[in-house]
Amino acid sequence: MKKFLLAFLFLSLSALIFTPRSHALTFPGDFQIDSIQGSSLYWSNFIANPGNPNQGSFNGCGDGVGIFMRSANPNGYIYYQGGADNCTLNGATFFDFSTLPIGQYYIRVTAVDSNSVTSSWENYFYCNGTFCSGLAVNPVTATPSQTQANTPINISSSFTDLFASGSYFIDVDWGDGNVGGYNVTEPSGSGSVTSSHTYTTAGVYTVILRVYNNAYGGVHGQASTTVTVTANNPPTVNSITVSPNPVQVNTAITVSASFTDADVSDTHTATANWGDTTTSCTVTETNGSGSVSCPRSSGYSAANVYPVSVTVSDGSASGTSPVEYASVYNPTAQGLFSGAHKFTSPAGAYAQNTSLTGDVTFGLSYKYQGTIPVGDKQFTMNFKNANLLFNATTVSTLVISNSMATLTGSGTINGSGNYNFLVTGVNGGDIRIQITDPSNNNSVIYDTQPGAATTATPTTSVTGNIIVHN
């Protein structure tokens, strides 16, 4: 009886000492047989190879331990070891499970004492081609498997615990340094897994899903998938059209534009910045590119020159159009000078580079009461090729005669300095713009008609409209 108790105590202590929790192939209690047959103690315990978690051996074996492993389907033993005290498998100290084909397997460990009394333990385990476990984790599905940076991606899978049920920890390694996890309780020993992640950098990532049985710290199954993340290209928004322009207050106005996106699977939203508010737009697109229409049925409530732009977004990146100017005026019987949209800067107009040409956008809206000019906002002109943005800050004179208006005043270039300007326009016709530097003997900075008298009739045609009311 004392020998029996001592043997049982040795069995319990040995199980505590030799039961590992860190190797890949591990079951409740590991591969362990604790039995007393006749006068001898027979005990077997699985020990992992520290150099390869898919390899292991048995130690602590008694007389005549046999190890049998076979595939669940078809039948037939894959490994066999019998009648050995050192518990090696086919002469190898360690045997490798990583070479097993994908499938469910059956293992049986038997111990036979000197009196031919047999004790055994048997169960199933699962292999996915590179990894074996008592937890069967099904293949991981990534939706989508190819995505853009800063766009969420979802994974899903399911698992079955061949040996137990209860509490499980779901661990997801996203392959970019981010690891997340959560606990689930599955009384039936099987369940589903879902998780979401957003990659910020383009690349090819291996996502590893591990499911741990919380009752057995090292017991887990795993599966993986590959996700391809590409850089997200922002949409390109082309020049916008504001129509009508100039426009009366409280009159419907529409801004429209086209856009392109190299990411043909993207869908887009758009907003219009009207200079005093923003509104959403209607997007029509095919394969990631299309057009935008932004109506404003009530129009502007106040006369002014408003900067207008359109922004198109794919949900992660956005692009904004060049600024256009909406010239809004109050109808009056006399004293009105308004104009907007753009013209082509003629060669020679820009004094610093007389060969430079390109589009110039502009906007103005002025009227006078009696002899006093009144402007809700100063004249604006933008010659992007020359990096020249002029904004009028004061108005000196507004002279209207025979359907031609001349406006003078001062303003800034790119937000600084003090420069004089002259704008002359013909009703329904052409325009002339001149900017000079009073601190440098009124040297010419910009003039669409260099050398012409200030009273000369404008000759630069406008895409848009000029309105002059005497």
Could you please describe the fold and organization of this structure?
The protein is mainly beta and 470 residues long. It folds into four domains: 2-117, no CATH class; 134-230, Immunoglobulins (Immunoglobulin-like, Sandwich); 236-322, Immunoglobulin-like, CATH 2.60.40; 332-469. The chain contains one helix and 39 strands. It has one helix at 2-18; strands at residues 33-37, 40-49, 52-59, 65-71, 77-84, 95-96, 103-112, 118-127, 132-133, 135-137, 141-143, 146-148, 152-161, 166-173, 179-186, 190-198, 203-213, 220-230, 236-237, 241-243, 247-248, 253-260, 269-273, 278-280, 282-286, 289-296, 304-313, 318-320, 324-329, 336-345, 358-369, 372-375, 380-383, 388-401, 404-413, 416-426, 431-437, 443-447, 463-469. The strands form seven sheets. Strands 30, 31, 32, 33, 34, 35, 36, 37, 38 and 39 form a ten-stranded antiparallel sheet that branches. Strands 21, 23, 24, 27, 28 and 29 form a six-stranded mixed sheet that branches. Strands 5-4-7-8-9 form a five-stranded antiparallel sheet, with no helix packed on it. A hairpin with a 4-residue loop joins β27 (304-313) and β28. It is elongated. The relative contact order is 0.08. The model is unreliable at 1-96, 110-114 and 117-123 (pLDDT under 50).
